[in-house]
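During the no-cost extension, the postdoctoral fellow (Dr. R.K.) reprocessed legacy sequence entries with the updated structure-token encoder. One reprocessed record is reproduced below for audit purposes.
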Amino acid sequence: MAGAGGSEGVRDSGGRDGVERLRRWRMVLGGGEAEGTGYALSGRDAQMDAALGALYGGGGGGGASRKGAGARSAGLGGSAPNVARWLGDIRTYFPSSVVQVMQRDAIERLGLAALLLEPEMLEAVEPDVHLVGTLLSLNKAMPETTKETARAVVRKVVEQLEQKLAARTRATLTGALDRSARISRPRHHDIDWNRTIRANLKNYLPEYRTVVPERLIGYGRAAQSVKKEVILCIDQSGSMAASVVYASVFGAVLASMRSIATRLVVFDTAVVDLTDQLDDPVDVLFGTQLGGGTDINRALAYCQSKITRPADTVVVLISDLYEGGIRNEMLKRVAAMKAAGVEFVSLLALSDEGAPAYDREHAAALAALGAPAFACTPDLFPEVMAAALEKRPLPVP
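Re-encoded structure tokens follow.
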């Protein structure tokens, strides 16, 4: 197809477009004897290829390389300087979203989690939700010299999420609280016209083609007193890491709203109430312990004991539903809460990744109780909470 340089032979048949096509295929295929393009990379392309090869080359992390000139070598070795240099390279050559994916793959494929216990490594990485989850799972093994750096990384991600999510969440839920407080003598701009018309259809005058509203129904304005109570009950098993991060941020946002009393509970086989730390979601996150078993029944029993106003309470269970406790008791508790007037929301995940592996039998049992279990993205969560506060059907994807 082309010689070692690759470009001259291609110009005759495809011109610049042909050269560019070969360059792209060479970047994808990675070089080696069977690669087939015969195209040699140079300059920035060669450096990008080396960064990709260190992670995705055929050796899988032991420093091995494939045969043939220009083949990618796999592995970053166990050296922190090598990894730090590689982290700097990928941030130079790739956009932030790609860097985050490559970091995650490096941790999983090459076992680099232990190197994150070193402060200089943490300073080199691109912070994201998945990195926070990894750091939280390493929390107990983290030396004191690293903890402050780790907290700074976590705080940067939390602040970014708060900036993205807080304003819309407050606005959506404030509107829901206003609409849930119906009044019978509303001001003009507070009239709920849809409900008012339905309530006065008997007063329709055909000759004038109009409805005479004898009774006005309006939206109330939520006062500063507590109107609703929300309990976030979060499974902190290892598969729920991203959900724990998002739920902690949303918990802090809800706690900042005077008209909502918010409680945050995390659980594995034990139950921990982190409500007192809700003013700082970073403290909440470092109060979790990712991994371990799951006892949903015990967690729901604790939440149930904290409910004082069932008709004004929303319980949000965030879990993959793999129950290690007593299944029938768990379902009985959900049924009892719903019968008392509690709005019960079951989320299989609160993240951008879709539903994880989950217990389908338990999900079906909850759906039969009127509490369908579904995965929820952070962007959808405010709408889900607004629907729950207003006691209307949830916007299940």
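The longest helix spans residues 144-180. Residues 1-13, 59-74 have pLDDT under 50 and may be disordered. The remaining legacy entries will be reprocessed before the final report is submitted.
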